Fold this protein.
Amino acid sequence: MSNKFFLFRNWYNENLGKVVLIFLLAVVFGMLFIYVPFLNLIFGPLISFFILFFLWFVLFPPSIRTLVGIGIFTLFCACALSLLRVESLAEPFGEILYMILVLIGFRYLQEYISQFK
Amino acid sequence: MDYGKQRGFKGGIHLMKILAKHFLVLFLLLFSFVPFLWLSGNQLILGYDVVFPLKAPAFLIDRMYSWTTVGGFDMDQSGIQGSIIIHFIDSIVLLLGGDPQLAQKLTFSFWFFAMLFSAFIFISKVEKLGYVSNKYAKYFFPILYTFNFYILQGWWAAERTKFSLVVALPLILAIIFPFIEGNLSRKTIIRSSLLTAFTLFIFNGGGWVGMPLYGGLLVSLSCFLLFCGFTFYLRRNYRDIVSLIVYAGASVLFYALFIAYSLIPFLLTTLREYDSIVQGAGGISGVIEWTKYISRDVSYLNLFRFQGIPDWYNSGANHPYAATYISDPVFIVTSYLFPVLLLITLLRKQDRKIKLFFLFLLLVSLFFTSGIHRPLGFFFELLMRAVPGFAVFRSAFFKFGYAYWFAGGFLLALVLGEFVQFVVKRIHIVSLRVIIGILLTCSVMTLLAAYHFPYFTGDIFRVDAAPVGTRVNLPKYVKDFSEWWDKNGGSSRVLLLPRLNEVWAFEQYNWRYMSTSPILGNFSNKNTVENVNILSSDEKALVDNLYIAINNKDFSTTDTLLQVLGIKYLLVRKDFYFNYLDQETDDPRKVEEDMVQNSKVKKVKDFGEWVLYEHQENPIIFTKTNAIWSLGSATIENLLIDNNPLSFNKQVNPSSISDVVIQPHCLNCTLEKEDLSLHIPKPRIFIDSTLFQLLELSYRLSRPSNQSIDGEIGDLLGHTLQMSGQINELLIENKGEEYIAQARDLLVSDLGVISKKIPLVIAKSSDPYRTFFTIQQYLLAEDRFFNALIATRAERRSIFVMLEGVVQELNRVNDQIKNHFPDDDITTTKRYTYTSPDSSPYLLKIKKSTMGELVNPDLSAISLSIDNQLASFSAKVEGDYINFGSINLTKGLHSLILRGPNQKNLLPQGTIEQLAGKTCKSYVFDDFSSLKKYSLRFQSRNNFDPSFYLFIDNGNTYSPVHKTFFPISRDQVNMNRIIISTNKISLQRNSRILRVAFCADTLNETLFQENISDLSLVELTTPAIVLSKKNNIVSSQAPSISFVEKNQTQYSVHVSNINGPFYLVFSKHFSSGWKSSVGEHLLGNKFANVWYIDSSQKSLDIDLWYSPQRYFFAGLIVTILSLVAGAWIYKRL
């Protein structure tokens, strides 16, 4: 347990700058999309989520395994909502899954390009 | 183990593996025979969009011609000649002597086989190239590609055109997939281009009208070429990028050459009509609305579950199998296994190169398949608006879906293959490994197919609970008539009775058939006429008039129209599903009863439920020496003068014109039939928002600079309504007065602009009366609204002054309109306009039956004003016409005003009765006609019961088709006007009863009298006025004629006894493609080809031919030569 804590502390110290940046951007985008006229109409909450998700992907490049894990969790949530017959609530999870697949695609592409270097 | 035994053992294992491989292929083949489960007894798949040749030779021959005589008054079919290959495949079994059912079973099995094995060929090729590392995926991919909900939906109408491109996609990718290895030689490129073109030559999507179906193929090929190009770029292999471009260009070129037989007629004939096709679909906005409708349930999540089929959600609980997949928890959970497997396949490290390509294709095709659905639907909409021609992909799901299922199926097959391989590898006994491998593969294949169980139950040939579908029992008498008609029909036409429901135009029978394509079209029976949608509006008007004349026992009109339309036979179909809910039409037995009273109609043959009658010989080609020149909104009246079946709406050779007929156009008749109900909108963005200015800016920018005056005024009126809504909401929300003043200023400014435009309306509007009427309705609605607002919300004096100002401005503009637009009662005063071609006396008649039921039928109560001068007439009744005698017309534009008595209230005395547990005051009108429109007017208030309402139905059982509730209004009296017609309210078309009832729990006579007053039902009429004069005395002795139909695009006509100029009338749909060896080509009778021939010879031999046919023959030669040359090049390379 304490080992994991130290591992996490080390990771946190190493990535402090990125953690601060992502929180800062989360606040900035949050403010932008909530309070700035026009932007709050043009960008819905899902778009702001996508942007933050993409920032996370850029700052802390996750493995394909992590992305697949998130994807399966997304599907689990969607399935539960479908079983409850609230399809309209389940629909955004399909859009998140699409984005996850796009991100997996980026990973695949990186891997593919690296073969030619 | 000695060497020999070891070798024998290895040989045995090898043999087992070969057997296993073949067994699995055979097992796959077994799935091709699913269609044998679908049809039993005499069942066939027909109706809706299924066109299946039941008489193969005739069908194929018809497709060889650019002009078809199957249906309507014939038409060009250049766009669909490419479907000849699909229909040839349909016809093979029939040509070999098989019956239609066997032909369908085997043809459908062929398409299963083609889809399964094209997918198998592709994945085997990819496996051979080393891009797929497991050997089991190749058995799963074909199953996933063939047994899925997208293809299943296509089977409901046996969409072979779509299936052909579903087959072509994997075949073409199998041809070009080796490109990815690079080092493309010229030979590879040319050979691949030839093979690609040849594949599309065979599996061509049914011709160029089916072009949108190429969507999925184009997306897939573009993705592959991009992927290849990107790979070559990474390898710095620029030469191969050029080779890819050459491949694409060469493929297009070879394809164009191979299908020249279909492409050339399409380019030179059909494509010219692209704009009219888009306009027919309601313009680009209509097309986008349709795409939105189709894409409504095609969410990304549904697509990931390999669902989202629009029919599932549109048909509700009545869909034969959708409810199981949408509601059953087991099936819901199972559907989520597919995207989970998709993610797992991406997690696995094997075959990542090909997975990258298919992931790319999956993401791109998903975007296209979902159409205008969030989150990226806006981009699809942008493509539809901005890319010329992209609008053809309006049914996005159906046009791109197979590319998505191709990509998704492949990725799923990989993970399933890896799963089987994973299990098999853990078995150490080799022989057992082979057996387990086979068993597991077969089980997974079976499970995948079984999940799509409707394939096997066969309940896929309907979309809802309606008593119609595409699996029908074709009655024997249909076939009998078809055969009789082929033998005896010749070039005669037959009218099919009863008419189709005028809104839906479905041919519907009580043996489950329903389609907009006539059943006889499947037999390629020629010259059958009914009111199908392919008719032009003028042809439809003529045919509708014929049906009406038959129903009304108007024998004279019937005879004339049959002559005009070249119809000799009449077929009564007693099996017609005439009382199908919402699609009602005439009772065939009643039609037959009325029709046989015409002495010229004789029974020819009884086929059972179909009975054939004969009228006199009415040839499709005849001659005339005299004609009628009709001006204005010419209708059937023009054709009845002296039974002359030839009229022109422009002046042709003056000496041949025996009569001139003018039908004045009624300016205000249609206005009273319009139900312009206005409501004040609730604003989404208030005037105090920072966004409001942006909204105003977008409103100003969206108005085109070259807008017509009608459009400009329409926009301004819409804006006044919005500002009224703003003022209302600002008052409700108690916002600052400055905002109310701002909205008031904008509203008054709009009214000022409208006021300035009013003097220009007469000169510039396309329909001034309509424009004035519309302005007046808006102004009146806003006046009522602001008066109510003053009474309820103007608590402060400043607000009162502001609102009063608006009302004064509204009244000012309204008064200004009255100077231009007489404030007539449009139910009694009809205003007409007409142009006289000359100055001479004309006979003026009014068709009595078009005047409705008048309170005072006395002719003296009717008055006529010509050019605002009251005219004096001595009117008398002559048959169905009121003859007003002769009037002197001067050349030029004139106005005519017809004033008559009020229309009679058609409602009888009402009775109090109990209906549906309520007390109702009901009125039953027993002479209702679906061909007429009525206006129901009354004043209402409600001071007694919140459930007080009005309903309208056909009076048999309580089945309201319209309901209006009256909220409690105390003493406030409201004026009500409801337009009643079968087009607006779903009343039964064949019912003569109309019931209007007012109901409430506590209603009684006294309460009814207190709350409902001035109730009336009157007919809305358009009196038909005809002005006619005798022009020249022309000999009516037409030359004799005989003709031979060489084929459907060529006629040879012999004319004798010619004594002067004459008209040759060819009663087929007018087309500039029809040519004659002599004479000037004209449009006659609003639909027919007519040639004016002035010859000094006593007899003439005339050739008539359809010129676009030569494009087909030229294209066919190019096709044959290209195929031969292509084969030679392929062999030589």
User: Anything to note?
Assistant: The longest helix of chain A spans residues 87-114.
